[in-house]
Specification:
Helix content is about 15%, strand content about 20%. The protein is α/β, with parallel strands linked by helices and about 350 residues long. The chain has two domains: about 150 residues, Distorted Sandwich (Spo0b-associated Gtp-binding Protein, Chain: A), CATH 2.70.210.12; about 170 residues, P-loop containing nucleotide triphosphate hydrolases (Rossmann fold, 3-Layer(aba) Sandwich). It has a six-stranded mixed β-sheet, sandwiched between helices. The protein has a five-stranded mixed β-sheet with strand order 3-1-8-5-6. It has a three-stranded mixed β-sheet with strand order 4-2-7, with no helix packed on it. It is elongated. The C terminus is likely disordered. The protein binds guanosine-5'-triphosphate and magnesium ion. Guanosine-5'-triphosphate (GTP) binds next to α2.
């Protein structure tokens, strides 16, 4: 089951309360206060993990909570810090506060983390409140409450190259031919109902990822067909690969298809159709294909690779063209990870103590 949107509530752990205690020991009269501070509450942290493909776990477990910090103890013992609640999500996950629409994190690189709710600080034990005028304070503070939020979690697939085409153009067949992914293919539209990411692996060459995105039809930007549900997955691809059915099956013209695809992309997100791209002219085994290819070559300046994806024809040429296109792009700079842990929490907060 592929899930690319979820709403979850998260609660970080409360800080542990400070302890009120006095040192009681034989031969140590008036031992003084020795109540320790409470522990830090656990935070709720989202972490991007390469192996995850979907947000399905969040759909079935919609509330996540981190552990509270332990209370301080006598003999100046600090309470235990609460364990963080770490949620593994796929690379490409966006974390948005549902109430304020604030973007809390955009996890585009494996290992990147976002602290969605911070644990509360621990309270102060009574040994913190000793002063020259009060040698035996009984004051303590409770821990701060942990943050609680409602979050909208959204997945936008991250891939180097996105396959864009009409239903039945042969996108899934192509990704099966060039990569490790083997999504279902069938002679009817909308076989692919969610994006599949395939990794293209060749000896001693850097790997790259290709996303097979469900077929696009006129009006997709208005949510016709699978609409936005897949168009937004194209936004994250560095480059595009238009897959055209050169046989003109179903009475379509591949040149019209290309114009319509570009129009839909631009209507969804201005400039999307102008991303660096190449064209894979598929189904070259069909009768009408050579003539359509000539017309396409006369009109288009993009790199065009003819193929019959079903027979894996020109497989190496397609991979080389994709690699050349990606190599010509500037390198990406991933956004830095959001720092983890409590924000500027001094070790001894607000301690009114002199040494
Ligand atoms: N003749 C011919 N048929 C092909 C070729 N490549 C794919 N097909 C067939 O075209 C049909 C559709 O292929 P898919 O790969 O499922 O197409 P798709 O673009 O992924 O379609 P959606 O998932 O519906 O968007 C299948 O029946 C394939 O066998 C080809 O090169 N030549
Ligand atoms: Mg498909």
């Amino acid at each position: 089951m592929f899930v690319d949107r979820a709403t979850v509530t998260v609660s970080a752990g409360d800080g542990g309360k400070g302890c009120c205690s006095f040192r009681r020991e034989k031969f140590v009269p008036y031992g003084g206060p020795d109540g320790g501070d409470g522990g830090l509450g656990g935070s709720v942290i989202f972490r991007a993990v390469a192996g995850e493909q979907s947000l399905v776990d969040l759909r079935f477990q919609q509330h996540r909570q981190a552990a509270a910090g332990g209370a301080g103890r006598s003999r100046d013992c600090h309470g235990a810090n609460g364990a963080d609640c770490v949620i593994n999500v796929p690379v490409g996950t966006l974390i948005v506060d549902a109430d304020t629409d604030e973007l809390l994190g955009d996890l585009t690189v494996a290992g990147q983390e976002c602290v969605a709710a911070r644990g509360g600080k621990g309270g102060l034990g009574n040994s913190r409140f000793v002063s020259s005028t009060n040698r035996a304070p009984r004051t303590t503070t409770p821990g701060d409450p942990g943050e609680a939020r409602t979050l909208r979690i959204e997945l936008k697939v991250v891939a180097d190259l996105g396959l864009v085409g009409y239903p039945n153009a042969g996108k899934s067949t192509l990704i099966g031919a060039i990569s490790q992914a083997h999504p279902k293919t069938a002679p009817y539209p909308f076989t692919t109902r969610h994006p599949n990411v395939g990794v293209v692996i060749e000896d001693d060459q850097p790997r790259f990822t290709v996303a097979d995105i469900p077929g696009l039809i006129d009006g997709a930007h208005r949510n016709v067909g699978l609409g936005h549900d897949f168009l937004r997955h194209i936004e994250r691809c560095r480059a595009l690969c238009f897959v055209l059915d050169m046989g003109g099956v179903d009475g379509r013209d591949p040149l019209d298809d290309l114009a319509a695809l570009r129009r839909e992309l631009d209507l969804h997100l201005d400039g999307l159709a102008r991303r660096p791209a190449l064209i894979v002219a598929n189904k070259m085994d069909l009768d009408a294909a050579p003539e359509n290819l000539r017309r396409l070559q006369a009109q288009e300046s993009l790199c065009i690779v003819p193929t019959c994806a079903e027979l894996m024809e020109n497989r190496d040429e397609i991979i080389a063209a994709m690699r050349d296109l990606l190599d010509s792009l500037p390198p990406e700079h991933p956004t830095p990870a959001v720092p983890r842990g409590a924000p500027d929490r001094p070790d001894r907060p607000d301690a009114p103590l002199e040494e």
